[in-house]
Here is the input.
Amino acid sequence: MGGALCLPGAGAERRLVNQTPDSPTNGQTAKTNELIAKLPVWLRQFVKFGLVGVSGIVVNMLITYLMNQLNGGAANAREPVWTSPINNWALRYSYLVYIVAFIVANTWNYQLNRKWTFRGTNQSWWRGFFYFFGAGVIGAIVGLAVKIALTHPNSPLYLPGWFTDSGWRAREYWGQLAGVLVGTPVNFVVNKLVTFRQHETASRDGSR
Here is the structure.
């Protein structure tokens, strides 16, 4: 008689199932490969974000210097601008400097990141700025806490004797610098995933 009809064995069926495009293993592999393929683009964007951040630090420190000079120098940075009548808590000039410098530098960074690091974003300017500012506020709160810890005389982290109250070694300036350096990696991740999540640079950058 003619050849017998051969049915695939259990082992063959198992291999066929494992090679099915819709299998969980293949799906996980595809996601892993996709993440690996995106790493060079993320790395380039992080470097650009860092360069923009450096320029933002320059802007931040320039505003800090100018505002302190308008107030008679860094030695007067801890003068109270407003004192609470309830618990005598004081809003000091140093804190005001940090807030103003953050707003100016954050706006500077946003515009440069929008035009260079994540160019092609579909977010409107104001919507993107809202997200960027919100991400920056998180880092700014942490940074302000760092500055207060380094410049408050009663803090255990108060900068030691090499630092002074005036000149280029003033605690006001070094505390400000330490504060603005703290949040850069966090800001990058938040802005990459939220503010500039709808950008069109990946394909263009990846092809270069």
